[in-house]
Amino acid sequence: MEGTLSQLSFISSNSSLFLNTQFEKPPLMADTLVLRAIKSTERNGASKTKPLKYIRRRTGQASEGFHESRKRVSKVNLEVSPHRAVCAVRLMRIELGGAFADLLNEKGKGSGSNEMGYVERTLGFRTRPLDDRDLRLVTDIVGGAIRWRRFLDHLIASLCHSQKMFEGMEPLLLQILRIGFYEIVKLDMPPYAVVDENVRLAKVALRPGAGNMVNGILRKLVLLKENNTLPLPVVEGDDRAKARALATIYSHPVWMVRRWIKQLGQDVAEKLMTWNNSDPHFSIRANIAKDFTRADLVELLTMLKVPHELSPHLDNFVRISTGMQIIIQASLLKQGLCSVQDESAGLVVSIVDPQPGETIIDCCAAPGGKTLFMASRLLSQGVISAIDINKGRLRILKESAILHEVDGVINTIHADLREFARNNSVKYDKVLLDAPCSGLGVLSKRADLRWNRKLEDIELLKNLQDELLDAASMFVKPGGVLVYSTCSIDPEENEERVEAFLERHSEFHIDPVDRYVPHNFVTMRGFYFSNPVVHSLDGSFAARLVAIRI
Ligand SMILES: C[S@@+](CC[C@H](N)C(=O)[O-])C[C@H]1O[C@@H](n2cnc3c(N)ncnc32)[C@H](O)[C@@H]1O
């Protein structure tokens, strides 16, 4: 994932979350159908620059409204509500991923920072610029429509004449319906205004017939909602049937629901999904390396009228539930005075417990959330070697380190850790392996992640985690510390990886983490676990292992 300096401080270290509008990611699973359709259109010789809005999902044919002669107009359209136009296009970008960029622009991501450029080239018109309220709505609606996709699609499909009609729906029309359904069912917005606005968007962006269709379906929805007769699945039948129904009600993939019911029981699984669907909470870390203390941060937040509270767990952290846009606009992040970092990630750094003068290797360091926090705690004495296989993400780390004024203690290395460990025999006081993982602990922040993950990923990740743990252990000094962490809540990526490692490496033993984090985060085996359902933080795990002195 590439990034620019302006993105640096938006990094949530646990989840590599970017709070800006960059969405560069592989296409989503459920949309292979859509992508296939698009690719088949390309194969059939259709113009690469044909507006994406005209592609049908299943057939890959141009819709009835497509006219080669239709020219894009660059006039500002005042009829359409700008935030809905932006939402529709942003949802298309997220859902179609690289294929979207390719279709719009043969250079791919050329206009990544210019959202209005995307709107203009996708819809054929410009809207007035978004104000703060529009921006908040875009964030809410896009996040919500992605999170609730399975649930919304169930309702939309139930109100279409046939499954075929739903499956053949063109992507832009589907996004407009998802927006309307989300606004009516989940945001409880005034229904007839929502109908009118989305009908207008469909008419202007597509064609009058599309507007009529949106009108018919949304009006049906309004009636059903008013009569409290929404077609919701009933949780009954065998385990599989129950999991399917819960997956629709809570809008998660069926495999995740089945796994969680088995691991946690239905009650906790439902609580976890409720957390994943709730508005994400953020915390902000004051950058003491720039002599910017939490007291300074609190003073600024008070001045900016951003409601906040102090973290009970970490000295430099402040929690906020609203006001992120204000913080962004005030340039606090751009100036490197603070960064967005979940407390669950901050607690992993507490477990590493970096001390001035120490040598540390951060084995999977990019984009650098934990590296920067560790570096700030070295107080300019010591060194952190920050390794990552991903050059783009490592570049973000480097730029952030300069911005945060901790570059003096960070040395970046672009390498595959396994390869690097084979060819280097340097030993460090502390080794952090923040391993690549499923990210199942950060689904409330990464709205789209649930749809990108597959059950098979966990198996692949487990092998990689074992290999990386073996490699990381080679850097630990006798008596030194190895911290293994993930932002997953899955025992197979967490406790089970550590237990398997200890079987392979009798030279390590568990150092219980109760000296470093509050007791309610410590498991029976002495590991750290932040549980979204219990702690209202992102889910994450860490084990502190010590190498015996020979
Ligand atoms: C969970 S992220 C790390 C997040 C980071 N510690 C932070 O706090 O911002 C995992 C990282 O592992 C890196 N990675 C994956 N496989 C790797 C390998 N074989 N060698 C080195 N880095 C690897 C990925 O590029 C990714 O940046």
Automatic annotation (TrEMBL):
Its main location: cytoplasm. Gene3D superfamilies: NusB-like, Sun protein, domain 3, Vaccinia Virus protein VP39. GO terms for molecular function: RNA binding; RNA methyltransferase activity. It is found in: Cytoplasm. One of its GO terms (cellular component) is cytoplasm. It holds the Pfam family Methyltr_RsmB-F. Residues 272-548 form the SAM-dependent MTase RsmB/NOP-type domain. It comes from the Eukaryota. InterPro entries: MeTrfase_RsmB-F_NOP2_cat, MeTrfase_RsmB-F_NOP2_dom, NusB-like_sf, NusB_RsmB_TIM44, RCMT, RCMT_RsmB-rel_pln, RsmB-like_ferredoxin, SAM-dependent_MTases_sf. The active site is at C487. GO terms for biological process: regulation of DNA-templated transcription; RNA methylation; rRNA processing. The keyword Secreted does not apply. Keywords: Cytoplasm, Methyltransferase, RNA-binding, rRNA processing, S-adenosyl-L-methionine, Transferase. S-adenosyl-L-methionine binds at C364, A365, A366, P367, G368, G369, K370, D388, D416, D434. Belongs to the class I-like SAM-binding methyltransferase superfamily. RsmB/NOP family. PANTHER family: NOL1_NOP2_SUN FAMILY PROTEIN _ ANTITERMINATION NUSB DOMAIN-CONTAINING PROTEIN (PTHR22807:SF61), NOP2 YEAST -RELATED NOL1/NOP2/FMU SUN DOMAIN-CONTAINING (PTHR22807). This is SAM-dependent MTase RsmB/NOP-type domain-containing protein. It comes from Stephania japonica.
